[in-house]
Design a protein that fits this description.
Blueprint: H1 2-22, H2 28-33, H3 36-67, H4 74-83, H5 87-97, H6 100-110, H7 116-134, H8 138-168, H9 176-230
Helix pairs in contact: 3-8, 3-9, 4-5, 5-6, 6-7, 6-9, 7-9, 8-9
Organism: Bizionia paragorgiae
Main location: membrane
Protein name: Outer membrane transport energization protein ExbB
């Protein structure tokens, strides 16, 4: 009876110990710090790329928001000034607005009196400069979205190589815990790379959509201004 009770108690203690080992939580920081120098370097690089991507996104989104401000009366005022020959007043209005649209119209106004083709060319050239300014550093986001997953996968390959190296030097006695820690760390770099890549990819596409809207506004107002010049005075 006593012997049976002791056996059951020992079995319960063993099951409890096994249950505690199964329920052991994994700390991401521990996985990173135990992954060796290569793992720490790669995770640090991914973190830097994430910070750069977020900085570019928020800096560009604020710049695009400022550039996309609309003034419903702007073109009406430009029409009145141009129709009445008040070129200086029209230029002053464009300078006050200081938006991509107003700068394009200002470029067109400065060419009034020249052939319409020359005015159109001047506006197109100014438009290219404005688009370049709006897309500043956006290509870096595209690069990060593609490079981050590959950097993460590089960390995984390095981790796998180190794990295989440990197996090769184990001399027939494989420490499962050491092997598992190496594999966890290797996969952590892939997860980190994917997270950074996804964030950069979403940010890039969102900026592209926002920029396209501003470009559409510039094209629409430029055509409206050219139509104004075509009207008989």
């Amino acid at each position: 009876m006593l012997s049976t009770l002791l056996q059951e108690t020992a079995q319960d203690a063993t099951a409890l110990a096994e249950g505690e080992s199964v329920e052991k939580t994994l700390s991401i920081i521990e996985l990173i710090t135990t992954g060796g120098t290569a793992g720490i370097v790669i995770i640090s690089l991914l973190f830097v790329l994430l910070v750069v991507a977020l900085y570019i996104y928020f800096e560009r989104i604020l710049a695009i928001k400022e550039a996309s401000k609309k003034d419903a009366n702007f073109m009406n005022q430009i029409k009145d000034y141009v129709s009445n020959g008040k070129i200086d007043s029209a230029q002053n209005l464009c300078a006050q607005k200081n938006t991509p649209v107003s700068r394009l119209i200002s470029k067109g106004i400065s060419r009034i009196g020249k052939p319409l083709e020359d005015i159109n060319t001047a506006i197109e050239n100014a438009g290219r400069l404005e688009i370049y300014s709006l897309e500043k550093n956006v290509s870096v986001l595209a690069t990060i979205s593609g490079a981050a997953p590959m950097i993460g996968f590089l960390g995984t390959v390095i981790g796998m190589i180190l794990s295989i190296f440990e197996i090769a030097n184990a001399g027939g006695s494989i420490d499962i815990k050491t092997l598992a820690d190496g594999l966890y760390t290797a996969m952590t770099t892939t997860v980190g790379g994917l997270i950074v890549g996804i964030v950069a990819y979403i940010a890039y596409n969102h900026l592209v959509v926002k920029t396209d809207k501003v470009v559409y506004q510039m094209e629409a107002h430029s055509l409206e201004f050219l139509d104004l010049l075509n009207e008989p005075m």
